[in-house]
Amino acid sequence: MDKTAPNYYCTWQIIDWLPENSPEKGLDPRDFLSDKYLFGENGIAVKSYPETRKKLIFLLDDGWEVPRGSGDKKIWFRPYVGSAELQEDKFPGYGKTPAERLKTVSEKVKALGWRGLGLWISPGVAYGKGVSEREKDFKEYWAARLERSKEAGVLYWKVDWGDYALSDRHRKLMSEMKEKIYPDLTIEHAHTRAPVNKRGEESLFLPFLEQVQAFLFRRSALLRRRFPRPDTRDSLKSGGDFEISRKKQRSGPN
User: Fold this and answer.
1) Would you say 245 and 53 are in contact if contact means Cβ atoms under 8 Å apart?
2) Contacts 24+ apart (CB under 8 A), 34-38
3) CB < 8 Å & 24+ apart, contacts of 103-106
4) Which of 80, 127, 181, 216 could pair with 146 as two cysteines, CB 3.0-4.6 Å apart?
């Protein structure tokens, strides 16, 4: 296992910028997480960070699970977000099974010189809520997806928003299963929110958010900060989101 900090390039900033700046109009940001826009001649994985990518994990952020046309909010969320399955319409010919398709992406990323593949993960169950009292269902669901990532050689999960994003219980289950099934996988427990402080305002750490940050700190294997990056207009040349990770020293009870 590589003991160095798992720094990564995250696709979110560039796909959020592309709808207004791509020659192909009318696309949702998540539509750009596809074979064409990642691995085509001028694809994101092809053009970004050519000199330093060997040290960076290439992390597919929110959107890799959803089909093309995901700007239609009626179709994009269920049953896709939380499925941890690559969409065949955006990645045709990548394999017959979810694990095979993930492995193809992983191999393509590494063939381009990246350190490996990372995935944005929604901590829920794609077929819907209601499993909070059925721990067995939740564990079986995510055990299968850990096995797929292990088979594909995925290096990193960024566990972010979803049905159980604010549930310490479910995040703990994911981390515990990871240790049993795929201990070499790094899990970052993240939470979508504004910065800690806004200019000219008091701290945004309300008691509830303090609780959230506390259990995320307990569960996550590392902490992350955003590296100052070039203007997004240049991101296909130089990057986009460049995440710097610091492995966290654990102390105290779990």
Assistant:
1) no
2) 34/68, 34/90, 34/91, 35/90, 35/91, 35/92, 35/94, 38/11
3) 103/151, 103/152, 103/153, 105/60, 105/152, 106/152, 106/153, 106/154
4) 181
Burial-class residue 76 by CB neighbours within 10 Å (0-12, 13-18, 19+): middle
Contacts of 248 (CB under 8 A, 6+ apart): 217, 220, 221, 222, 223
Task: Quickly count: other Cβ atoms within 10 Å of residue 72's Cβ.
Answer: 9
Integer Cα distance of 182 and 147 in angstroms: 7
Strands 156-159 and 116-121: parallel
**If you count them, how many residues does the chain have?**
254
* Mean pLDDT, each 10-residue run in order, the chain (254 residues): 78 93 90 96 95 96 89 69 91 96 98 98 73 75 96 95 83 93 92 56 49 61 55 41 45 38
For domain 8-247, the CATH architecture is: Alpha-Beta Barrel (3.20)
Distances (CA, A) of 167 to 54, 89, 91, 174: 35, 32, 32, 11
